[in-house]
Each structure stands twice: as structure tokens, then as C-alpha cells.
Design a protein that fits this description.
- This protein is α+β, with helices and mostly antiparallel strands.
- It has one domain.
- It is 35% helix and 29% strand.
Length: 55
């Protein structure tokens, strides 16, 4: 597994885990290319994920 990410919601009586496992680096490369396309021609600043995703 190339990438394994887990979000944990830990409550007083139970725990919920959501896990994403990437099998290859392809998805990370695609995300990097999309980020570059987004930032080209924009002013230098820190952008939020909401801005990048158009939310």
C-alpha cells in the first residue's frame, strides 16, 4: 500500500474509523497536476482547499 490515511471519531461509547488506502501513487500525481493547473496565473498566496476545489 502506497498511502494509508485514517480519520478517527472517538466518542464516549464507541469509535468510528474511516480509512482510505491508495494502491498506487497515480492519484497523488493527479492531485498535484490539478493543483498546478489551479494556481497558474493566480497571485502568490496560501489558498484553502475550498478555493482549490471551488467549494
Amino acid at each position: 500500500i502506497v498511502g494509508d490515511h485514517t480519520i478517527i471519531f472517538d466518542g464516549p461509547v464507541d469509535v468510528i474509523r474511516i480509512t482510505h488506502s491508495a494502491k498506487t501513487r497515480d492519484i497523488f500525481a493527479k492531485g498535484a497536476l490539478e493543483a498546478v493547473k489551479f494556481v497558474v496565473g493566480k497571485p502568490a498566496k496560501l489558498y484553502t482547499m475550498q478555493e482549490v476545489l471551488g467549494l
